[in-house]
Design a protein that fits this description.
The chain has 306 residues and is an all-alpha fold. It contains 14 helices and no strands. Helix 7 crosses helix 9. The longest helix is centred in the C-terminal third of the chain and has 21 residues.
């Protein structure tokens, strides 16, 4: 017995592993424009199953426009062709006005919970990461016109500001937050411009994933079981017993130290020399890198003198 199944979902996620391992998966990709044009030409001339009895003709540009409208979906292309033909006289060329009327009701192919959703947001994210403002605008507006929740896009822009820009441009996150609040206040369509402004700003901003990587490294360390006790010099000692137990011993108040730099170590002894944050040489983070390098060097000198 041979079973054949079809799904519009991604089988990698929707079909259980044991079953997937026993299947042969065939991916049916959207048709290209040339293939759709061929189907449309066939439908126009087929008298038995198509529109041949109407004797309508169509220019190459009209057929190409319909194929682009269909976004790879043959059924959508054929339905559009049928509507356009019905609004055109028998034996005549398809009316451009009929094409425009059908296209005005266009709904972009989009599934808010399926692969299309994740593919498009991935395209937006990577376009910004690659510093391509034109692509960023294209994917942003495409998602908006497809019915995506603008506040979901605003949240993603905030994520991008932290993950891909970080301290290379501290204003990036402020811009993303402001865009979200602007949309929340203005709504559509005026608020959409704030999201577009933010997407372009993030695309042209200097990039750094140093904060993202540092956060991940600390998380991985903690997940591995490295949750050490807080060093006693970092603990408060509000009671006499705590002080006698050594809590707060050796604690330094940075504001009382030279240049506000304390030599007190703030990580547990087991990882005292660990460095998580490694700033990049781009944008404002280049200044952070120079400052941090000088600070670490000064600390090393002072600790040796101690």
């Amino acid at each position: 017995m041979v079973l054949v199944g079809a799904t519009t979902e991604n089988p990698s996620f929707e079909v259980i592993g044991p079953l997937l391992s026993r299947l042969t998966v065939h991916i049916l990709n959207p048709l290209d424009e040339e293939g759709l044009v061929t189907l449309l030409q066939r439908a126009l001339t087929d008298r038995e199953r198509g529109l041949g009895h109407r004797d309508n003709t169509a220019s190459a540009d009209q057929l190409l426009a319909i194929s682009r409208f269909a976004s790879g979906d043959a059924r959508r292309a054929l339905v559009a062709l049928e509507h356009i033909a019905r609004q055109s006289n028998h034996g005549q060329a398809l009316r451009d006005e009929a094409l425009e009327q059908v296209f005005q009701g266009r709904a972009l192919l989009y599934d808010k919970h399926g692969d299309s959703h994740f593919d498009l947001i991935s395209a937006l994210h990577k376009s910004i990461r690659c510093s391509d403002p034109d692509a960023a605008l294209y994917w942003l507006v495409r998602m908006l016109r497809s019915g995506e929740d603008p506040l979901y896009l605003a949240r993603r822009l905030e994520r991008i500001a932290s993950e891909d820009i970080g301290l290379a441009d501290p204003n990036a996150l402020r811009m993303a937050v402001a865009a979200r609040e602007s949309y929340r206040f203005l709504g559509a369509p005026e608020g959409e411009l704030a999201l577009a402004e933010c997407a372009v700003y993030l695309a042209v901003a200097p990039k750094s994933n140093a904060i993202y990587k540092a956060f991940g490294e600390v998380s991985q360390l903690l997940n591995s079981g490295y949750a050490h006790s807080v060093p006693k010099q970092l603990r408060n000692a509000p009671t006499r017993l705590m002080k006698e137990s050594g809590w707060g011993a050796g604690q330094q108040y940075a504001h009382d130290e030279e240049d506000g730099i304390a030599t007190m170590k703030c990580l547990p002894d087991e990882i005292a020399d660990k460095k998580f944050y490694h700033p990049h040489k781009s944008g404002w983070e280049a200044k952070v890198k120079a400052k941090l390098s000088a600070l670490r060097t000064e600390l090393e000198h002072r600790r040796k003198d101690c």
